[in-house]
Structure formats: C-alpha cells, structure tokens
Amino acid sequence: MNNTYYQECLFYLHNYSTNLAIISFYVRHSCLREALLHLLNKESPPEVFIEGIFQPSYKSGKLHTLENLLESIDPTLESWGKYLIAACQHLQKKNYYHILYELQQFMKDQVRAAMTCIRFFSHKAKSYTELGEKLSWLLKAKDHLKIYLQETSRSSGRKKTTFFRKKMTAADVSRHMNTLQLQMEVTRFLHRCESAGTSQITTLPLPTLFGNNHMKMDVACKVMLGGKNVEDGFGIAFRVLQDFQLDAAMTYCRAARQLVEKEKYSEIRQLLKCVSESGVAAKSDGDTILLNCLEAFKRIPPQELEGLIQAIHNDDNKVSIVSKPW
C-alpha cells in the first residue's frame, strides 16, 4: 500500500471514479478490509457489495475470509445487515443453496437455515427411498429451530434481536418442529414400504408435509395405502389429518376409491373399522366413504358389492344404492 503507483491509482480513483471501481481495485489487490471500510464509509448500496466484494470472494473460495473480516469490523453484524440480506437473495436467485446455507449459519439466521435444510431434503427427490437417505437434513433443520428457541428465550426482555434474522413466534417454531418430526415418521414408514415393495410413488413432485393441504392429504393417502394393510399406516395418516386439520372424510374417500381401483375390497372394510375406532369420526362418515366409492365404480364383482352394501348403516342409503342399475 506504500507503493507510489498504488497511491497514484487510488488518487485518481477517489477523485474521478465510482465507489464500485474503488472497491474492485482494493479487492484485486487483496485489500478486502479497506474495501469493506470504504463500502461502509460511503454507505454504498447493496449492489456494490454484491458485485465488488461478495461475488469475487465466493468465486475465489474466500468466503470465510470475508466472513471473518465482517465480524472483526462489527461483531454484531448490524452494519452489514442490508448487505447480508442482499447476498442471500443473490445466492437464492442463482440457486447456490450450499453457499447460502453456509452464509445463513454465519449470520446465525437459524429459521432461514432450517428452511434451506428442508429444501435440501425434498428438492428433486423421486422416491421415499431417496428421502430416507436425506433424513439428516430434517434433523439439522430441527437443531436450527431448537437453537432459535434457546436464543429467543435468553434474549427476551433484552434489546431486540438483529433485524436481518428471520423472526418467528415460539408457537410457530413448535408447530414447524412437530411437522419435521411427523415428516420423519412418514419418511421412515414409506421408505420401509418402498423397500418391501408394498408402496410405489408415481406422482411427482413427491408429496411431503411441506406442501399445501392437497399435498398433505396426498401424503395421508399414501401412508394409509402404503403398508401391508390399511391399519399398518392409519395411525400416522390420522395424525397428519389431525395436526393439519385436513378434510378427513375427503381423504378417506380418496383412499377408498384407490382401494376399489386396486380391487382390495377387504381393505375398504378395514379402513371403515379404523375410521370408526379413531374416536373423532361422525356416525355418517362410514356411509359417506362407501357411497362415494360405490357411485364411482360400476364394475364391482356382485359378491364384493353385496358385502360393501351390507356395511352401510343407514337404510335409506342402502335402498338408494340397491335401486341403482349396476
């Protein structure tokens, strides 16, 4: 930095050039600290940080060096908040999720780090066998949320937490942790079913509990139908329906229709038994399930059809089915 030519260059840059050009010059000459201090001093916009400092750092494998300097200049990282948020957005746009995860951990942004772990778990998976091999990501997500709860409980009543870290209520964190736990149980169960050959996933993207309600109902259906019999997976499926307050009757009807398609008529009776013993089903739910699948399929063998009709409790419903032309 004492070199005359170097000082001459700086003189012209400071007098006639842009902040980005000055910062890029510092970075090219391995003066990263000076580049960062200039960025702060001039209150340069996040775009300058991304183009002049952040991209050259991670592209040359010097992200840790950059992180150490950011922390040494401001241990709270508050000064870098807007720049760190912009860096995360940049990485997400580029689909550089491994670098993003590393940065989120440096930022101690536990909630977003957990979200990235969930993405690592579910992204582009084609079977529950694949998901079974990626369960460690859900454990990491849970760990991030546990740390977040510990940190927020320690800092309650003190100065408000850093603005650039994602906030979440303790109730929401607990809810997400329950979802992670339930998804782990679903994954282990369906992984086992796929290995045994009793379950096959044909729809993509692969349904998980991180999707919308329709996808969650799909998960419940697959768990009910994936085991060696309905009873095998009903307990987990029932918890999915209860935890997410899904339309249970509609889900049971979907499962029953799939059983008729596969001509597993005895399993329909087992489904009705499980629904009845669940303790929360309405008295009419069993009839609703039977009527729904009987109306949808016309080619049920007479003997099986008679058995299903006999399982209907309401006499009016029985009459309406019997009087139909089959």
| Gross geometry | elongated
Mean pLDDT over the full residue set? 89
N-to-C CA distance: 92 Å
**Structure annotation, total helices:** 18
Major sheet: none
* Helical content class: over 70%
Given the helix and strand composition, which structural class is it? mainly alpha
Low-pLDDT windows of residues:
none
Strand content: under 5%
Q: Secondary-structure element sequence? A: HHHHHHHHHHHHHHHHHH
Q: Tally of extended strands?
A: 0
Description:
- The longest helix is centred in the middle third of the chain and has 27 residues.
- Helix 2 packs parallel to helix 4 and helix 7 runs antiparallel to helix 8.
- The model has no long low-confidence stretch (mean pLDDT 89).
- The chain is built from 18 helices and no strands.
- With 326 residues, it is mainly α.
- This is Zinc finger FYVE-type containing 26.
- One of its GO terms (biological process) is regulation of cytokinesis.
Quick overview:
This protein has 326 residues and is mainly alpha-helical. Helices cover 71% and strands 0% of the residues.
Give keywords.
mainly alpha, 326 residues, 0% strand
